[in-house]
Design a protein that fits this description.
The chain is α/β, with parallel strands linked by helices and 143 residues long. It has a single domain, classed as 3-Layer(aba) Sandwich (Rossmann fold), CATH 3.40.50. It is 43% helix and 17% strand. Helix 2 runs parallel beside helix 3 and helix 3 runs parallel beside helix 4. The longest helix is centred in the last third of the chain and has 19 residues. The protein starts with 16 loop residues before the first strand and ends with a helix.
């Protein structure tokens, strides 16, 4: 039987929900550690197909998606476009994180609907600051 290896490991459970999608396990675990320390609930998926399956079946939408660009099965730009075209999810901030930092890469991210770009490797402070800023923007737009 195939199961989707998406995990919820946070014990705090009261913070905003961040959905981290990356095929690099070390990157996911580093992001999880940083974000859980800050009080966020962290869910994860290892590729774009898993991410979309999770988002389709989840009754709760994430407050923010942190999405790698280069992944197997479905890349982050495709997932970002799907999120931004979904009526239930299109207001969720999507932050792309990747080692691809060229101008064409940033334009492709903007065209996909990404709210921001984070370069890999990332610093914990930069990641947290950017996430807090985009969560605040999303909450202000919702009011």
């Amino acid at each position: 039987m195939n199961t989707i290896p998406i995990h919820l490991r946070s014990e705090k459970m009261q913070g905003d929900m961040i959905f981290v999608v990356d095929d690099e396990e070390d990157t996911v675990e580093l992001a999880r550690m940083v974000l859980e320390y800050e009080g966020y609930q962290v869910f994860s998926a290892s590729n774009g197909e898993e991410a979309i399956k999770f988002l389709k079946k989840s009754t709760n939408k994430p407050n923010l998606v942190l999405l790698d660009v280069l992944m197997p099965k479905m890349n982050g730009l495709e997932v970002c476009k799907w999120i931004k075209n979904d009526d239930r999810l299109n207001t969720v901030p999507v932050l792309l994180f990747t080692a691809k930092v060229g101008k064409k890469d940033r334009i492709a991210g903007e065209e996909a609907g990404a709210d921001a770009y984070i370069n890999k490797p990332f610093s914990a402070d930069d990641l947290v600051s950017l996430i807090k800023m985009h969560l605040e923007k999303a909450k202000n737009r919702a009011q």
